[in-house]
């Protein structure tokens, strides 16, 4: 399974509650914070729903 680095690039202030919860579930919350996750279909769907707030890079 491939790993990806997910980095928050935008603030979650004034975003819908659903997007805020998705960011917290991924372990993000501050700009420039990076987490490494296995690229499962669930993680891919979460990233897709907040793609305008994060950058994704394969490891």
From TrEMBL:
SUPFAM superfamilies per record: Ribosomal protein L30p/L7e
Q: Which UniProt keywords apply?
A: Ribonucleoprotein, Ribosomal protein
Sorted alphabetically, the Gene Ontology cellular component annotations on this record are:
cytosolic large ribosomal subunit
Tell me where the transmembrane regions lie: none
Question: Care to name a GO molecular-function term for this sequence?
Answer: structural constituent of ribosome
Pfam family, any one: Ribosomal_L30
An example GO BP is: translation
Q: Which residues form the Large ribosomal subunit protein uL30-like ferredoxin-like fold domain?
A: 5-54
Task: Name the protein family.
Answer: Belongs to the universal ribosomal protein uL30 family.
Q: How does it assemble?
A: Part of the 50S ribosomal subunit.
What protein name applies here? Large ribosomal subunit protein uL30
**Species for this entry:** Rufibacter hautae
